[in-house]
Design brief:
By secondary structure, the chain is an alpha/beta fold. It has eight helices and six strands; from the N terminus they run αβαβααβαβαβαβα. Strands 3-2-1-5-4-6 form a six-stranded parallel beta sheet. Strand 1 (10-15), helix 2 and strand 2 (38-41) form a beta-alpha-beta unit. The chain is elongated, with a radius of gyration of 24 Å. It starts with a helix and ends with a helix.
Length: 206
């Protein structure tokens, strides 16, 4: 599996998930994009990793599901995080990022060694104002239709994809720059060697 710095730095957090299907599907969503760190805050009695429907939906991602950490509250869950980003479906909030605009920042933070937590709210109510206030940044997924929000696992999938795509492209750009730099250095070394050979030839001729 392709592993990038962002995979080691980002943790997904589901706050008060209600349906076990969403928990399992969210684990599958992050695993397809290379992420393995999942946490659950106050899950309902059904939305536990051991529930059969969670296990069923976590196709080829049972390792993520079974290793998901469970917390009593949000404050406990974000201990050790350098940056916390919360999801919201609310409109009219200033400073809210779209996933595509947030992704480059998260990749930059991850490259710098920061620990980032992405928080997704309950299926019915999302994050409360107090919970959003505990986040350093927030994001909202734009929608064309007048739906209240995306399904929880779908929202996790969108964000996981944007992060992976941005990190992959950034790595490709870095590799291209490194290749170009290596080529420039090789050319410089070749020119320097040719100049030295010419100087030696001129000296011998005189």
């Amino acid at each position: 599996m392709l592993e990038l710095p962002i995979h080691r730095s980002v943790r997904f957090l589901l706050l008060s998930p209600h349906y076990p299907e969403n928990v399992g599907a969210a684990c599958r969503a992050v695993k397809t994009m290379g992420f393995t760190r999942m946490g659950l805050v106050r899950p309902s009695r059904l939305a536990l990793p051991s529930h059969p429907m969670a296990q069923k939906m976590a196709v080829k991602s049972l390792d993520v599901l079974d290793s998901a950490e469970i917390y009593d509250n949000l404050d406990e869950a974000i201990v050790g995080a350098d940056i916390v980003v919360g999801s919201t479906a609310r409109r009219g909030i200033s400073g809210v990022f779209t996933p595509s605009r947030l992704a480059p920042r998260v990749v930059e933070w991850a490259t710098a060694g920061k620990k980032i937590v992405l928080v997704f709210g309950n299926e019915k109510s999302g994050l409360t104002s107090d919970e959003l206030a505990r986040c350093d940044f927030s994001f909202r997924i734009p929608m064309a239709d007048a739906q209240p929000s995306l399904n929880l696992a779908q929202a996790v999938q969108v964000m996981a994809y944007e992060l992976f795509a941005e990190a992959r492209d950034a790595r490709s750009a870095d590799q291209l720059r490194a290749a170009e730099l290596a080529e420039e250095r090789a050319r410089a070394a070749e020119i320097s060697s040719d100049s030295s050979d010419e100087a030696e030839t001129d000296g011998a001729a005189s």
